[in-house]
Amino acid sequence: MDNPITLRDIFREYSFGEPATPEMLDRAEAKLGHALPPVLLSHFLAFNGFKGPTAADFFYSVDQLVEMTLFFRSEDYFPGFLDTAVAFGDDGTGPCWLIRIDQPDTIIEWDAEWGEHYDVLPGSIADVWLARKAAYDRIAARAP
């Protein structure tokens, strides 16, 4: 279900950035010092970030991804596993979503308050986004 076109349809009421260019992605990879996982590349070529139900950046823009990822790698007080992770989004409640570059099929959720602990989330990036959207849809359905 990581089809970017289908995701745009499912999240049609939310704001999507214009597709990233190959040059933007090349610059990002140069700054990070490694290739981005293929799933991120495919999404960036369809849209350069998008806002989710809370108006938070469910999917960071290329520049946000680089900024957050390098920030997490630059501070000694952050856990070492962040050196092999790429931050790609969040739902505005604190934790962010990351992909480990050494385990590109594994999506994790981590908050700085958790220290070395993180949660492995089931499924793909799209599954994470869809599950979080469904949770917010349930909350909105109960609102008066």
Characterization of the model:
By secondary structure, this protein is of the alpha+beta class. The chain has one domain (4-142): SMI1/KNR4-like. The protein is built from 5 helices and 6 strands. The protein has helices spanning 4-10, 22-32, 38-46, 62-74, 125-142, and strands spanning 50-51, 57-59, 85-90, 96-100, 103-110, 119-121. It has a 4-stranded antiparallel β-sheet. A two-stranded antiparallel ribbon has the order 1-2. A hairpin with a 5-residue loop joins β1 and β2 (57-59). The longest helix is centred in the last third of the chain and has 18 residues, at 125-142. The radius of gyration is 15 Å and the shape is globular.
The CATH architecture classification is 3-Layer(aba) Sandwich
How large a portion of the residues is in β-strands, by DSSP E? 15-25%
According to CATH, the homologous superfamily is SMI1/KNR4-like
Structural class: alpha+beta
> Rg to the nearest angstrom?
15 Å
Please work out how many helical segments DSSP would assign: 5
Enumerate the spans where pLDDT stays under 50 for 5 or more consecutive residues: none
The helix content, as a percent range, equals 40-55%
Broad CATH class: Alpha Beta
Largest sheet: 4 strands, antiparallel
SSE string, helices as H and strands as E: HHHEEHEEEEH
Distance between the termini: 32 Å
Shape: globular
Number of domains: 1
| CATH-assigned fold name | SMI1/KNR4-like
Kindly report the average pLDDT value: 90
According to DSSP, the number of beta strands is 6
